[in-house]
Amino acid sequence: MKKYYAILVSAIVLFTLWGCPNHSKFKYTKAYFPNTPVNLSSVNSEYDDYNSALPETHYGRQLIFSSNRNSSGDNFDIYGDNLHAAWYMETGILQVDNSSFWESITYVPQLLNLIDKAGDQFAPYALDFDTTINDTLTRISMIAYSTNDLSYSFRSKFVYGKSTDGGITYHAVGPDTISFLGDDVQQQYVSFYGNDVYSIDWSDVNPNLFTEMYLDYHENGNSNIAKMVIPDSLNFMQFLTSEGNFEKIPIEILNSTSNDRCPFVNGQFMVFTSDRPGGYGGYDLYFSRFENGEWTEPVNFGDKINTEFDEFRPLVAQVTNFENDLMIFSSDRPGGLGGFDLYYVGIPKLNPIMYIEK
Questions:
Q1: Which pLDDT score, from 0 to 100, does residue 196 have?
Q2: Nearest CA among 51, 74, 69, 62 for reference residue 112
């Protein structure tokens, strides 16, 4: 498989619904994302742009993704750009672009500057949360990612910023290595699950309620999805910095004899990509729900979203004031700007139970 088989993107965006408070005089008061994928052309380039995270999860004011544009198609780096969505109730027109709506956010560039520059960097996952450190309320903004250094060993790392003044001033730290993942096996695309962790915009997520970390790992010729259980004795940051030995547990119902990759968890809902038989060609996007203590049989998103080409690294977000939810993914389908591009599409609400319209 070609080297840009990893696609991006991890955390959740809060979009702004523009319009007058007096909705009654407008015809298009219900906002929707389109049910067929749209190229995020204002962000994409002629090179490979993928592996996105809907970052800065509190306000979702910046999109974080992996691209090889800086080296004209060679090495991949982690980039940040704006992501802005607006629904106009007079016309029923949705605007999604990278307009400079969030310029006041300054700590994300600080974090990006700390990320490794040598080799390739993939699979960003972003999270914002409040925690107590030494009896002081502290705001943490974190970006986890995978790096393939010049010796071609894979490492999973993270950078984070700490603030004790409500997020006004951040002290950036890192990169720190998630040492228990090692570097002898390709392990990346970390994502987290907790039975009590479910939020409309992740602005109030308590990561100490996470109980499991999900990832994909390449071993014996193909990739599978596995989880690691977070011990009750460790909080979230203690787990990431631990040098312990945590069992990697394959999720049999999600895996196949083909490549199953890029798990992303939002509440009781998971999306991932697979090149298993029965799809539409290349990598397809699938979803599963956590019900009765286990993940359900994966369901293909169908031919409105998947193509005969590669669809990779899906992320999903509940979006305030929209009638459907948002998925961002990468694809090398024809009609893009070049290589892999980022796309967005509307999907049925994650809560209640998601369904696929026939």
A1: 75
A2: 62
